[in-house]
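Aim 2 progress update. The chain analyzed this quarter is reproduced below.
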Amino acid sequence: MRDLEKKMCIFLEKKLDTFREYQSVTEKMKQTVCGNDERNELSGLINRRQKCINAVEKINSSMGKIIKNDSVKFSCISKKYKGLVENCLSNIKDVMTQVDLMDRELVSIVSEQSEGIKTEILKMRNKRQAARGYQTTTRYPAKFLDTRR
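Predicted structure tokens:
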């Protein structure tokens, strides 16, 4: 039983580390989108975030197998490991709360920027259509007057 408790704690610590990396990547994404940090490429950050999500899913799957196969219950965990588990879970919750706030800010910033881009595109389209209105159109194709050569 102690071995399973130790494995669960190790998985939770890995999960916490992964969530902290996820938080760090989200902060970098926010800085990049706001224009404060132009050395990061947004697509690379999105890929890193997806890797964090995949890692968390693997950890959850592994933990689920331990819980399912060996029926480890939180009430049966020793006091030593119970404190570690509670601490990890609390830290994970705190990190995810912060990440959720950053995600909401990021979504609002990106939606504002996309509205600005849409407005600029519409202005350019209107200017292009106005320029087309002034363009002269020829009705007849060009003809060669000197046909003897």
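The chain has a mean pLDDT of 83. The CA atoms of residues 74 and 82 lie 7 Å apart. These observations will guide the mutagenesis experiments scheduled for the next reporting period.
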